Amino acid sequence: MFVYEFMSGIVETITGTGESEDGDYDPHQHRKVEKPTTYSETMIHMLKGSIGAGILAMPSAVQRLGIIVSIVGLMLIGFLATYCILLLIAAQYELCKRWRRGYIAYPKSMMLAIRDGPPGIRWSAMSLYYFVEVVLIFWQLGICVIFFVFVAENVKQICDFHGYEASLRLHLCFVLVPTILLNLVKDLKLMTPLSSISNIVTIFGLILVFFYLIEDDVVLDSEKLRLKSFNEIPLFIGTALFALEAVGVILALEYNMEEPKRFVGMLGLYSIGMISIIVLYLVVGVFGYLKYGEEIKATITLNLPQEQKKAQAAKLIFALAIFLTFPLQNYVAYNMVWRRAKKKLPESKHMVTDYTLRIALVIIPWTLAVAVPHLGPFISLFGAFCLSLLGIIFPGLMDLCIWYPNNYGVLHYKCIRDVFIMIIGVACLFSGCYTSVVEIIAEW
Fold this sequence. Notes:
Number of helices: 17
Number of strands: 2
Oligomer: single chain
Strand content: under 5%
């Protein structure tokens, strides 16, 4: 549960007092973590967090580009994503040393970095502080949109097979009230059993999916190997970023780790974990595409045979797991908004506003899901928009600013590197958003 509290901004700034033995302030020594996680526990949390809607969308991503380009592409995106997150963590660490703090949250880190940057952009420091928060909220609500469509599509397939046919939008309506009721749970600790159940059934569901992917001999033909179309590359990038770039979760795991220094580095926990995740995604993506070919759907569960009970069980398992984790994802957006709203309201209005906000933050993503109930384009859109910003552009910009003006290294290599990263991020942002919106409009 700590991950969701962290992402929602409860851990804003932790003040440290004192220095390390050599006189150099070490922020890691001044973090106040009640129950820090060990190396193995952090690795398990990281791997567990990678099994969800993202990994189930990888076969569809591979289908867009073909196997060879998809393997190379996912490895490159994985390397870029890993490098940028490590860059972000390093930038935050440097800011913590300068300001003598145990930890500074992402939005505030951005603000402080911009204030140390070139004079021409310092005026935007506070604006970027709020913009980072808005993107984080938008990202969490985007996940909720995807969750709604995912649950409704899987339940619809099962109901249709058993003769209870209804439109996808009607199934979304059936899901709304239970989701609102679940989201009214105030105490995050009460959600712990739901999270535990979700984790268990998700692993069981993934095992069932693997069973279907390897039960028959796969046929590898040249058509599946070659690149399909350059126009599909932005959509592939958006899906890959959605699957790989869990920025808030990663920062939370690094913060809560017993030995944070073991999290970073070329052979640090995060790098090793990302290699494992990329391999897992490639296995699911390639074998899923080999199994179902051009008939692959936005999520692999929709391709499982409807008439088999094991397949129905896998669909129900993933639908249940996603449904139970909805309030945890929504909690992040809720708490970021609520922390600010309650400061401006009299205490007499807190209860009404609290419940109204909780309900509104369910209805907003539900409305988007009902308006355009298409899983694939939404995954690409939110991945391209939110994670190009949070996971690529912002880390590059922060690093560029904190070393300004005379600490860019030999031949200003840090400046060149950061500008290059931001250019890649901007390209991913605009191309991914454009192609995703075009696809959404075409399917509307």
